[in-house]
Every structure is written in structure tokens, then in C-alpha cells.
Design a protein that fits this description.
FAD/NAD(P)-binding domain; binds flavin-adenine dinucleotide; 23 strands; alpha/beta; 2 domains; globular
Amino acid sequence: KQATKIVIAGGGAGGLATASQLQRKFDKDGDILIIEPSEKHYYQPLWTLVGGGLFKKEDSVRDETTLIPEGTKWEKDSVIKYIPDENSVLLKSGKKVSYDYLVVATGLTIYWDKIKGLKETLGKNGVTSNYSFDSVEKTYDFIKNLKQGVAIFTFPSTVIKCGGAPQKIMWLADDYWRTEGVRNNISVQFNTAGVSMFAVKKYSDALDGLCKDRNVQPNFKHNLVEVRGDTKEAVFETAEGPKVVKFDMLHVTPPMGPSDEIKSSPLADPATGFVSVNKETLQHVKYENVFSLGDCSNIPTSKTAAAITKQAPVLVANLISHKNGQPLAAKYDGYTSCPITTSRNKVILAEFVYGNIPKESLPWDQSKESYFAMGLKKYLFPTAYWSGLLNGRWFGPNLFFNPVSVPDVKKN
Ligand code: FAD
């Protein structure tokens, strides 16, 4: 009897959570391999708090080798080509790996190059981004050193990781400048390519209120296209044409999208370039033995680690059902969550499902700023991530109880 060969491309949040749950279910009946090029794994949601000066960046990183589930193999390499018609993937090293099942979880690609001048000036001239481990600590340096002038926080025209993160750091900075007594000397602007503060109306309305109360200027339909570091100028595309704005500090959320190898593969959704899956079962729309979750998939919800807490058990249940020859019964409802830090001790905890419909877990109105939710963001979520999600034992608002009924693997 042959073990089922499962290849997982990507050992990030989605890849590790899925591997842990599959490993436990398949045990010796599975031959599970993670393909992941990086020796380091990052808890990216912490970068907001690192940029805000509340944690050190070292707190967000661990060695990948310590996170690979026992019994699962790790190939330190990248997938460069998906060949689903042959049930195989090609790796950068030239090696071809075949599979019975493939799970694609390679995350989002950040297109730093798409903003002219950004790479050259990132980390200098007041220009920073929480979206990179290399620049995240610069954010706090620039916040601390700014005593007056113009601070701009941007949001691009593409999908991004965690839709709230571009403004979370703005509110943390606003709070810092208030305690330092310099806030009245600083003009704070949120320049977004979008048309509202947040995708879900309930939270967007609350954030509109905060903008008024805290004298933050939102500028909608402002898409950053160029940064001129030496003259401290940012160029935005607007409905009225290009607009050049002087800044003293600029926090950039860069454009993001699917990786080249996914976009050019038969797995891609032609409209978005992400892996095309059924939004409820997470099975590929064409290749039955391919599944995907997390940021690299075309699942139409906000891309977060919180979403993965609900996606992974659905994917695992459906992969096993498929293997057993049973119908795919588990369904993902689009659950995602975004703890929007509105100061250094308060959070608006957005939680919602498909259709941008709020689905809150706490017994009060979560569009109100809450100390308790900040406690979750600072203390519970990091522990739940490292010791729960990556081990396949954390199910978001269901805590340690898997709400999905996962079938046992039928013996061959
Ligand atoms: P990732 O965790 O990014 O993992 C992808 C993995 O695939 C990486 O390890 C990468 O090395 C690997 N890989 C890439 N290409 C290949 C390849 N070709 N072959 C093999 N492997 C490959 N989420 C929340 O829930 N709450 C938050 O508050 C929050 N805040 C955030 C703040 C910031 C600043 C950022 C950057 C993210 C935030 N997120 C938040 C989002 C969260 O981090 C991501 O949604 C989550 O990590 C997605 O998991 P993933 O497995 O899809 O991708």
C-alpha cells in the first residue's frame, strides 16, 4: 500500500496550518512535503506593532525548521512551474516533484518596483514601510523623530495583505505624537487609491468618525506612483491628474499581487492571476486534486492570517473527503478579521464574512474602540499563531475547537 503524496507549496501561515492538520489525520498513510525557500518564518501581523514601537522585530521571526510538523518533510526550494496536467511541480533547483494532491499556499508578491523611486529611498528620507522586515523598525524611528510637518500614509490600488494595516500604523503614530505634544504641528493624511476607509461599511463609518475627531485628512482616489526621496515629494495619480505632495514622513503600502509562476500557470484565474478555487470548498475549479488557501488564492475575502484559521480545516476536510471518494461537505463562509489599532491601547476588531457582512465574536459592538481587543492583538493572537494556528490547533473565534467535521482517512 502506498502513502498518499501531498505536496504543499509554501510554508507560511496557510502551508504550515494545513500541513499540521493533514499530518495528524494521515499519519503514516501520508507522505507530506512542504516546499519553502525561506529558512525564516515571519509572524507578519506583528509588524504593525513593531512599526508602532510596541515590539522588537526579532519577536516576529522564528526558524522554519522549528515549525515543520513532525513527520512532514521540508524541501528548501521554490516552485517555479506548476504542471497540473502531469501532477507535478518544477523547482528552482531543476528537480521535478510529483504528487497525488497539491496545496498551493505561497502568499502574495509585493511589487516594490511598481512605485518609481521607492526601492532607492526606502528606509531613508522619512520613507518607510511596515510591509518589509527590513524597513519595519525604521517606521518607529521616523515616527519618534518627527516633530512637525506632513505625514502621509498610503494604500495602493491592488489587493493587499490585511486591508487595515495601512491605517493601523497611522493611528499608532497619531497617538504617539499626541502623547509627545507635537500632534498639532503635524498634518496627518491617509492617501488611498480606494473610495472609503474600509471595505465594510460598519467599520468604515466608525473610522470616518475617528478621522474627524482626530483631525486626519483622508484623500480618496489617490494612488502613489512615485517617490522622490531627495526632495521628499510623493506623486499620486488622482482623478484630476498627477498630484505632487511634499512630505516629511511617508509610510508606503506597496502594490501586491500574484506571483509570476502562479499567474502564468494553468492554475490561475484569468481575471485576477490568483489560484482559482471554489470559494466554499477551496478545491481548484478544474484540477480536482489541487487545493489552495490564503493570500495566493482567489478566495474573494480580505487576505489575513485570521482567514486561514477558518480556511485550513475546510481545505483539510475536503481533501480527505475527495481522497475517500466522498462529497466535499465542508464550506468556508469567507470569515476574516482585522484588528484595526486605533491607538497604542485600543482596537476596532473588524470581523466579517463574504459580502462584507460583519460577523462578530465578542458580546459588544466591535466597531467601538476596545482595550480588550487590543489585549487580544498584543497577547493572545501572537501566542495563538505560534502555538495554535501553525500546529493546526487554533480555529480563530472557535478557539481550540474545530467547527468542521473532518473525516478519517479511509485505508487503501
Ligand atoms: P505567507 O504567510 O506570506 O506565506 C507564504 C510562504 O510561501 C512564504 O513563507 C514564502 O516564502 C513562500 N513562498 C513564496 N513563493 C514560493 C514559491 N514559489 N515556492 C514555495 N514557497 C514559496 N493578518 C491577520 O490576520 N491579522 C493582522 O492583523 C494582520 N496584519 C498584517 C500586517 C502586515 C504589515 C502584514 C504584512 C500582514 C498582515 N496580516 C495580518 C496578513 C497575514 O500575515 C497574511 O494574510 C498571512 O501571512 C497569509 O498567509 P499565507 O500562508 O497565505 O502567506
